[in-house]
Write a structure and sequence with these properties.
This is Glucosamine-6-phosphate deaminase. It contains eight helices and nine strands. The chain is α/β, with parallel strands linked by helices. α1 crosses α2. It binds fructose -6-phosphate. Fructose -6-phosphate binds next to loops.
């Protein structure tokens, strides 16, 4: 696409179409969602579709990819806060349908909590659609280099590059949490449909490695090459190194 805006409208409309189709079928629509700068325009368009075109989210159940650990919901840095600011506060999704990893779960409960997160996704029928961004390390969710293709939701240590990229918004590297809870590669790959968004030149190199490189745990996003219904939605900058 020429720009992120144009591309985001197309992605938002695919999601809206899926939600409406599930409403006709009288079924819930299970969405896996991402935070960060990449999906914000998609959320903006979904909010517009709700406010101006009557798109309802009453049948939507969401599972967010990740959350920093430790992190309180109230913090402006939390992904809980981000999702409410950008999407949930502006649509009619029932709050009981919103699932975001709990950044304050006690250390000794975190393993069981993560297993339960994956089980809950399975219990509602699995993800119908997973929206992704990509980090410069090749992470999807916070599955950093070294992540196993069969990994489930778990607590991880963030890569230095990822923490450095987050440092400006935290006003310094030392304020960026060292860990996070993330859905696993397998959790993501079980989704029936995956759309990965990347905008701008600074994603060009990792997009090239992800799309054209060998499948490897060194670039976890390459695992998506083995998924049968994944689309990478790119602007000219992010696509600029593809051959
Ligand atoms: C966020 C997430 C991350 C981001 C990635 C890109 O929930 O899971 O993988 O998608 O770090 O971030 P942005 O979009 O800010 O470039």
């Amino acid at each position: 696409f020429n720009d992120a805006y144009e591309a985001s409208i197309v992605v938002a409309h695919e999601i809206a179409q899926l939600i409406r189709q599930k409403q006709v079928e009288n079924k819930p629509c299970i969405l896996g969602l991402a935070t960060g700068s990449s999906p914000t325009k998609v959320y903006e368009e979904l909010v517009r579709l709700h406010k101006e075109e009557g798109l309802s989210f009453y049948n939507v159940i969401t599972f967010n990819l990740d959350e920093y650990y430790p992190m309180s919901k109230e913090s402006v840095h939390s992904y809980w806060y981000f999702m409410h600011e950008h999407l949930f506060n502006h649509i009619d999704i029932p709050s009981k349908n919103i699932n975001i990893p709990d950044g304050m779960i006690a250390q000794d409960e975190v393993i069981q909590y993560c297993l339960d997160y994956d089980r809950k996704i399975e219990e509602v029928g699995g993800l119908d659609f997973q929206l992704l961004g990509i980090g410069r390390t090749g992470h999807i969710g916070f599955n950093e280099p070294g992540s196993h293709q069969n990994s489930g939701t778990r607590i991880i240590t963030l890569d230095h590059v990822t923490r450095a990229d987050a440092a400006p918004s935290f006003l310094g590297l030392s304020n960026v949490p060292k860990r996070a809870i993330t859905m696993g590669i397998q959790t993501v790959r079980k989704s029936k449909r995956i759309v990965l968004l990347a905008w701008g030149q600074n994603k060009a190199e990792i997009i090239k490695e992800t799309v054209e490189g060998e499948v490897s745990s060194e670039v976890p996003a390459t695992y998506l090459q083995e998924h049968n219904n994944t689309t990478f939605v790119l602007d000219n900058g992010a696509a600029s190194q593809l051959t």
